[in-house]
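Structure tokens please, single chain.
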Amino acid sequence: MHKYPGLNLKKILSLQKSSNPFGDISAYKEIKREIINFSPDIVHTHGAKSGFIGRYAAYKNKVPIIIHTYHGHHFHSYYNKSMSSLLSKLERKLAQKTTLIIAISKWQKKELTEIYRIILPAKVATIPLGIENVYNKTDALIQRNAFRKKYQVREDTITIGIAGRIVPVKNLKLFVQVAEILLRSASKKLRFFIIGDGVLKKQLKEQCVNLNLSYTEETDENASLIFTSWIEDIMPVMYAMDIVALTSVNEGTPLSLIEAQICGKPIVATNVGGVRDTLINGETGFLIEPNNPHAMAEKLNLLIENDELRAAMGKKAMTFAAANFSRQTEVENYSQLYASLLSQEKIVCSANQNILIE
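Here you go.
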């Protein structure tokens, strides 16, 4: 990672999101080898598959402290009921071998402890995500103008963006449906951006064709919807947007909504998972029930047509996000947590403490 040159990284190439038993076995062996060589006092895992394989390897190799952060979960809307039930049972078993679970929102903790009963509340700590607040008004304006110029967006056009993987759980077909509604009804010029990529992009393009919605993957100024694919530096995108949306049917704590608010953008999002903990409903954005295109179109149109409301909610959003999702606060929370757990295990803290993060 170029931002942290002193960080020692080892990529496990066999650890992939796709289901591959042989690859998973290979990943387990590689992680086991790293644990034996590194001899960590703490193993801290993130993500579903890496969390499962990493925690099991840590447990089998007697790592004193095993921590896992849930950034989301697969207990609904990803698989059928049988598979979701099996995953829940496996997670409960693995939770028994985990020292501590980190939830990144209050609602996520409720899901883990009360709704899906994965783990007891005493073994869960809540630490919200943190991002660096690098907002500078002059830089923001420069980056906004550069992005809009690249995609040939006129200054009198309202831009509405959504960022994420183009996969079923993100429900981006709802975003396309809402775009079509608003392009027919709004009095202002609009352009919609999908920032990301994934297996359902072809289906979204077909949906655009069926709705007579013009789209592009290039820089056509006449296209109503732009597919940008992945953009590594998301901040210029957020500066260029006027409103940011989220249409998911299941979420942990969506980073895109925090980033949007840090950049002073109001949001309209489906009320799922930990989304409710990332905004103030009615003040920094609006929550709507999932799969309701007309409700989402109504709230977006309210922001589109009212410049003062959009500016006021954006200003409030920036203040709220800066106060509640600080990177420094997140780092301090984890530092204190590690020290506390090491102390409980009677492991002396030192500058070169061995912590393996997966």
